[in-house]
Amino acid sequence: MKAVLHISDLHYGTERPMVVKALERLVHAQAPGMVILSGDITQRARRAEFAAAGALMERLAVPARLILPGNHDIPLFDLATRFFRPYSRYQRVFGPELEPVHESRDVLAIGVRTTRRYRHIEGEVSARQVEQVARRLRQAGPDQLRIVVTHQPVHVLHAADKEHLLRGHERAVEAWAQAGADLILGGHIHRPFMCGLHEHLPNLRRRVWALQAGTAVSSRVRHDSNNSINLIRHGFEGGADRCVVERWDYEDEEDEFVLFESLSIPLSER
């Protein structure tokens, strides 16, 4: 099965060096074909933080990648840069595209810029973005795993996280599910989980899953989880399309990422 690495919230500037090294070992051992980084690459959007995160991505040496900026990747205190060139430091390292799309025979991954220069923490998705993503999903091939990537979550499990929900998420989830999305990836809340959105939203007629990543390497761990990442494995077996999502957590005593859980999920018919 093909493997996609999902990492988020590196928060470079607060990284744990031992965890960074452990992540490198895991990625080299698992050899995913693609990496998705769903925002908050840096802690304070400083040039040195972006450079260090860019160097990590080079060392991981994953053949394909899709990277989104998060709210921490817009300068907070440098107001001139924030309001006139909010993504300039991000773009200097990761390129000009703020809503990247990756397409291969096996995967269609669509990035959505949910950060705004006028918002500090919250994110939003516009009606135009919702329709653009839905239009692209409707063009997907039958053998492609269809992934949408945001920074802020489209679903949360705990009341304390509701304030961090992506603004416009209800409209977006319904439109993207109808258009054929399989997975909606996010970060931001540092709480890893997987959830069937069709089990919580009665208007969804297709199975679509929310997959949240924790913080991959930062000391800013929260709740009851340590540093963690996701591996998404996808393929056809016996004509049935399925997806296996693995959560790998860093264990301090072992100084390694270890498999925490593995979930096999059915995908909707094409």
Characterise this structure.
The protein has 270 residues and is α/β, with parallel strands linked by helices. It has a single domain, classed as Purple Acid Phosphatase, chain A, domain 2. The protein is 23% helix and 27% strand. It contains six helices and twelve strands. The protein has helices at residues 17-30, 47-60, 79-84, 88-94, 127-137, 169-179; strands at residues 2-7, 34-38, 64-68, 101-103, 107-111, 145-149, 183-186, 193-196, 209-212, 228-237, 240-251, 256-266. The protein has a six-stranded mixed beta sheet. A six-stranded mixed beta sheet has the order 4-5-6-7-9-8, covered by helices on one side. Helix 2 runs parallel beside helix 4 (88-94) and helix 5 packs parallel to helix 6 (169-179). It is globular. The two termini are 19 Å apart. The mean pLDDT is 93.
How would you sum up this structure in a few lines?
Helix content is 23%, strand content 27%. By secondary structure, it is α/β, with parallel strands linked by helices. The longest helix has 14 residues, at 17-30.
Please state the CA-atom Rg, rounded to the nearest Å: 17 Å
Read across the widest sheet, the strand sequence of neighbours is 3-2-1-10-11-12
The low-confidence parts are none
Order of helices and strands: EHEHEHHEEHEHEEEEEE
Shape label = globular
Query: How many distinct helices?
Result: 6
Give the topology.
Blueprint: E1 2-7, H1 17-30, E2 34-38, H2 47-60, E3 64-68, H3 79-84, H4 88-94, E4 101-103, E5 107-111, H5 127-137, E6 145-149, H6 169-179, E7 183-186, E8 193-196, E9 209-212, E10 228-237, E11 240-251, E12 256-266
Parallel strand pairs: 1-2, 2-3, 5-6, 6-7, 7-9
Antiparallel strand pairs: 1-10, 4-5, 8-9, 10-11, 11-12
Helix pairs in contact: 2-4, 5-6
